[in-house]
Amino acid sequence: MTKSALAKHSKDQKATILVIEDNDDQWFLIRLALQQRFPEVEAVWMSDKAQVMTYLEECVQNLRELPRLILLDLYLPYRQYGWDLLESLKTHHVYREMPVILLSQSSDAEDISESYALRGNSYIVKPCAYEKWLACISSIRQYWWDAVTLPKYI
Fold it and tell me: What is the pTM of this model?
């Protein structure tokens, strides 16, 4: 693909937010809030490390843009699974620059501390009501979409 063809392809393609969540009900709430607060993005849902790494490798191989943002549930279903995935992302030479926001029901200090130690970019305790999800997604959008300048991953 030529440089100009790649640029046109990138402009025509919606930006992607990768949502890594193993709970169908949580995914439903997140997807609905994203549709209302981020209608111009495509939310891609995955539930485990193998899926995520395969998807990201395919993005690179096919010259598709990597997700602009990753929302990662810490407990997949165990926190060690979330930490393992976070560590894999943040130590990879290409993926490490993608911002990863950890989402969890847990407000445990150890969960929060370890998530930042593994270079998570943010830690958010999951809202318990849909209206609060909307507010949370609006805040994520305002900061990670409107205020921050991110590097180009591909």
Answer: 0.90
